[in-house]
Specification:
Layout: H1 3-14, H2 18-37, E1 42-44, E2 48-55, E3 58-61, E4 68-71, E5 74-81, H3 83-91
Antiparallel strand pairs: 1-2, 2-5, 3-4
Helix pairs in contact: 1-2
Length: about 90
């Protein structure tokens, strides 16, 4: 499912036009992005949680040249699946 399909599903589920479902979807996603960028975590019960993991800098190697390079510290979003979602996905397999 992509963003357009999500917007269509929302519009059908709550019986609103696509032009109204689009800003609702965008607002939800933008709010989630802003929370993660601020270092907050997001927990949606039954679905999962989004957290920002911080990684220290380390010395890596360029696989092509073999030269050592310093990889700077970074923060990356991480999703941990919730129990209910995990069970539903496994039941569908």
């Amino acid at each position: 499912m992509n963003k357009s399909e999500l917007i269509e599903a929302l519009a059908q589920e709550v019986n609103i036009p696509l032009r109204e479902a689009s800003p609702v979807t965008n607002t939800i996603l933008e709010t989630m992005i802003n929370a993660l960028a601020a270092g907050d975590s997001i927990e949606i019960r039954g679905f999962g949680s989004f957290v920002v993991k911080e990684y220290e800098s380390y010395v890596g190697r360029n696989p092509k040249s073999g030269i050592s390079i310093e990889v700077p510290p970074k923060r990356l979003p991480f999703f941990k699946v919730g129990k209910e979602l995990k069970e539903r996905v496994n039941d569908g397999a």
